[in-house]
Amino acid sequence: MQTLANWDGGPGPWILFFPLIWAAVVIGVVTLLRRTVWRGRRGLWAADPRPSGDSPLAVLGRRFASGEIDEDEYWRRLSVLDEQFGRKDGA
């Protein structure tokens, strides 16, 4: 009976490293995909309809909320931004 530790023509103990090599390859591929394609909820193909922190709509909303601009100015600028960029929310 041949064993893995048999050195006379058998595969030898180095054959036990093949599963470790495959595990390293799989872990490397998963890590690469997580860092490039799978970026959580905000991946490459995910579109968030809410304005992000630096979007013009978010800046306009913050300025209105802080009192820098009045309601008329807010609606006037919002209509211009809607014409230029369009809204993507379903409301």
Backbone shape? rod-shaped
Radius of gyration: 29 Å
Helix content: 40-55%
The proportion of strand residues reads under 5%
Question: Count the strands?
Answer: 0
Please identify the structural class as seen in this structure.
mainly alpha
Average pLDDT score: 76
H/E order of the elements? Answer: HHH
Largest sheet: none
Number of helices: 3
Distance between the termini: 74 Å
Return residue spans where pLDDT drops below 50 for at least 5 consecutive residues.
Answer: none
Features:
mainly alpha; 3 helices; rod-shaped
Architecture blueprint of SSEs:
Blueprint: H1 17-36, H2 56-66, H3 71-85
3D structure, described in words:
- The protein has three helices and no strands.
- α2 runs antiparallel to α3.
- The protein is mostly helical.
Summarize the structure in short.
By secondary structure, this protein is mainly α. The chain has helices at residues 17-36, 56-66, 71-85. It has 3 helices and no strands.
